[in-house]
Amino acid sequence: MENSIKISVITATWNCAKTLPSCLESVASQSYANREHIIIDGASTDETIEVIGRYIDQIAKFKTERDKGIYDALNKGINISTGDVVGFLHADDLYASHDVLYKIAKAFEDPTVCAVYGDLEYVNQQDTSKVIRRWKSSSFNKNDLLVGWMPAHPTLYVRRDWYIKIGGFDITYKIAADYLSILKLFTQPDFRVKYIPDVLVTMRLGGASNKSIKAIIKKSKEDWRALRSCNFSVCGAFRAIVWKNFSKLSQFSVFKIFNVGGVGK
Q: What is the pTM of this model?
């Protein structure tokens, strides 16, 4: 396959010196060549900048300055990206194999495809070979949004033009701006997506959105706001949140048994 699709991979960093090397090496090991890796750092005070310096030859663009949170950082990355397609690999995350970007680019060879996503594995913080849970996704049906469905955001790759159309991420959201962006995108009548039934990303446990019941409640409030802003009815928004959280409660109790952090979304 010709490397005709350019992919921008954006990583937001802040005091993540311990996990960042494996993230950077994961991107560097990808077999697909037509890519750019953009690092947006939030003025880290640990050794993150030094780590980035050691890998600077493989980084296309790097910026470090104080920001207004992760979604602000991701917006900065989108704004300076030059790829046809944009995706995000957080500093705690890894690609599941060396050909992930190849699979994504292959799917985007169809010019009607606006976004691609796949499956996600949650792994132990210290031992990334230890899989705790697999987020098995499915092909998209717009009715799925009514029951709180969303793709695993770390696996989601979107044509850059679509992020520009929706204005990137709303930084007034602290936890659910990615969910809002998915609702904005996936409710568009001409937004066609493709599901790759493979694990694309492995994610270390410890996400901010579900690490406690309090965090789940906080996120539910933002989810409500996101749904209502996308014209879901009161009943529709309530149903989506109930189903969304119902599916998480059992996961939360299982993770408590394992004595590890919460899941992603």
A: 0.89
- Among 89, 102, 106, 116, smallest CA distance to 202 is for 89
Domain-embedded: residue 264: no
- Taken in order 108, 109, 113, 118, is the CA torsion positive or negative? negative
**Residue 259: predicted pLDDT:** 37
- Comparison of pLDDT for 249 and 178, the residue scoring more: 178
Give the span between the Cα atoms of 14 and 173, in whole angstroms. 18
Does 253 reside within a domain?
A: yes
Is residue 61 in a domain? yes
User: Which letter, b or e, does each residue of 179-216 get, where b requires 16 or more Cβ atoms within 10 Å of its Cβ?
Assistant: bbbbbbbbeeeebebbbbeebbbbbbbebebbbeeeeb
Tens-place pLDDT, residues 44-82: 999 999 999 999 999 999 999 999 999 999 999 999 999
**What one-letter code names the amino acid at 176?**
A
Structural domain range at position 113: 7-258
CB 72 within 8 A of CB 63: no
